[in-house]
Amino acid sequence: MNKVDLAQYLDQHADELFSIAQSLFDEPEVSREEEKSSSKFKRLLKEHGFTIHEFHQEELKYAFYAEYGQGHPVVALLGEYDALPGLSQEGGSKEKKAVQSGGAGHACGHNLIGTCAFGGAIAAKKYLEESGQEGTIRFYGCPQEELLDGKVIMAKHHAFDGCDTAFSFHPWDANFPVYQGFLAMNNMRFHFTGVSSHAGQAPEQGRSALDAVELANMGVNVMREHVISSARIHYIITNGGEAPNIVPKEAASWYYVRAPHRSDVNDITNRVINCQKGGALMTDTSLDYKIEGGCYEILPNEVLFDLASRNYEEMKMSPYSDEERELAKALSQSLPPDQVVKERENIGFYDENDFISLNVVPKEKAMVYSITGSSDIGDVSWIMPFSAIFTATWPIGVNAHTWQSASASGSTLGQKGMLYASKIMAGMFFDLVNHSEILSKAKEEFKKRTDGKPYQSPLM
Ligand SMILES: [Zn+2]
Ligand SMILES: [Zn+2]
Q1: Beta-carbon neighbour count of residue 320 at 10 Å?
Q2: Residue 41: burial class (beta carbons within 10 Å; 0-12, 13-18, 19+)
Q3: Domain residue ranges of the chain, discontinuous segments joined by +
Q4: How far apart are CA 421 and CA 426, in angstroms?
Q5: What is the model's pLDDT at position 372?
Q6: What protein residues have CB closer than 5 angstroms to ion ligand 2?
Q7: 3-state secondary structure of 177
Q8: pLDDT tens-place string over residues 219-237
Q9: Which of 68, 212, 243, 257 is most exposed, with minimal Cβ within 10 Å?
Q10: In whole angstroms, what is the distance from residue 344 CA to residue 227 CA?
């Protein structure tokens, strides 16, 4: 069995994969509620001959891994399946149209992520069976990516122990392996306690917790000029008191700090905490705070980037039908034209007759492509050599978390991009099994980049 056979095997299973992706799309479950989606994958993988391993912690009830094979390499494919609240959208629709007003929807295409990893896993298993080679494939069911902490919690409980390397897929508007990107971040909450009193009769007896929140925010806002310009600090006030005529005894805020490197996030986090302490000091109130979560940026691995790049070229995308092209055109034309033009430049695809990217992004552009969201896949990249595969499932210029990305994720347009990614994962697995030096080099590079230091959870 060679790579062409592996691609053919996945083509033969395309209907099965497309219907799984569609069924997840039709029953979206938001983070921490992925009961049906995780059960579906457990059942399907069991039917395909995988052994299911569950975790015993309550916070990992929708996480698991399914394993097949023996010995090394142990390759993890990371599946996700959570949807987003309020982004319900009819799949394949050319206009914004909720299936259920205010309901959840797969606007980040995680229905495709889980199914892509499932496709990669069954193809890898097929190869191990046919070839009799040594090697292990694991499908990881990873919940609550949208809360940016599913894999962070999994890592805290050593869920990834025993793996040599991990691959993950994300739907996008272009075909490229991710070299670098995603912002490291911290998620924290501040709570101030003061003294309540009548705001008209006895304000002098009160100590306003809301004043503390406002002064702390002011401190952070003037600090913005003195942090690296690529940092992002956002907050909301989650409690500002009960009524204007009562000096607020309790007040609270919720902050995210993001930056390209975890070390910057740690530094800025400390300064944000100092601003909060200052707010408490100035107002004679007390402060409690908690860092609720956080994640890392992607640690590049050039060996795996090159391995993925070769497989993008070797594996072929399925051709699109006229109907799929029309959908891509309609979705792309619903975007601001500048956004599409800019993205064509980013991905190096200029054919204005096509609204779905048909090229593989040139290496020099892929290596600098900037992704300014955050993801818990970053943490996995600091645990072992890691590769993120992005393929064109959405028309050019479409961003994640939009009705357009949801529409495409619930159609064959998105599913074909997903199938291409499954083939790339299967091809990469084939190469690792047959050329052990690739993994050795990837591990050497990983060791160099991490300085041999073990991963430190942002949660501790
Ligand atoms: Zn998302
Ligand atoms: Zn996502």
Answers
A1: 19
A2: buried
A3: 3-180+297-450, 184-294
A4: 9
A5: 85
A6: 108
A7: strand
A8: 999 999 999 999 999 999 9
A9: 243
A10: 31
Contact 188, 291 (CB under 8 A): yes
What share of the chain has pLDDT > 90, as a percent? Answer: 98
Distance from the alpha carbon of residue 37 to the mean position of ligand 2, in angstroms:
16
CA–centroid distance, 259 to ligand 2, in Å, is 19
Q: How far away, in angstroms, is 406 Cα from ligand 1 center?
A: 11
Residues 390, 170 contacting (CB under 8 angstroms): yes
pLDDT value of position 459: 85
Residues with C-beta atoms within 5 A of ion ligand 1: 108
What is the distance in A from the centroid of ligand 2 to the CA of 97? 21
The residue type found at 69 is G
> Alpha-carbon distance 138 to 135, whole Å?
10
Contact 271, 414 (CB under 8 A): no
Give strand ranges (E) for 82-164: 135-142
Asked if 157 and 57 touch (Cβ cutoff 8 Å), the reply is yes
Query: What separation in Å is there between the alpha carbon of 1 and the centre of ligand 2?
Result: 33
Q: How confident is the model at residue 460 (pLDDT cuts 50, 70, 90)?
A: low
Between the CA of 193 and the centroid of ligand 1 the distance, in Å, is: 34
What is the rounded average pLDDT for all residues in the chain? 97
Query: Strand, helix or coil at 246?
Result: strand
What is the pLDDT, as a whole number, of residue 370? 83
Measured in whole angstroms, how far is the alpha carbon of residue 42 from the centre of its chain? 21
Give yes or no for residue 310 having a pLDDT over 80: yes
* CATH number belonging to the domain at 3-180+297-450, selected among 3.40.630.10, 3.50.50.60, 2.60.40.10, 1.10.10.10: 3.40.630.10
Peptide bond into 73 cis (omega under 30): yes
Q: In angstroms, what CA-CA distances link 404 with 329, 407, 430, 457?
A: 11, 5, 34, 35
Rounded CA-CA distance 381/391 in Å is 19
Condensed to tens digits (0 to 9), the pLDDT of residues 146-203 reads 999 999 999 999 999 999 999 999 999 999 999 999 999 999 999 999 999 999 999 9
Taking the C-alpha atoms of residue 210 and residue 208, their distance in angstroms, rounded to an integer, is: 5
Q: Say if residue 253's pLDDT is above 80.
A: yes
Chain centre to alpha carbon of residue 408: 18
| Tokens encoding 280 | 């408490």
pLDDT at 20 over 70: yes
Task: List Cβ neighbours of 306 (8 Å cut-off, separation of 6 or more).
Answer: none
CATH number belonging to domain 184-294: 3.30.70.360
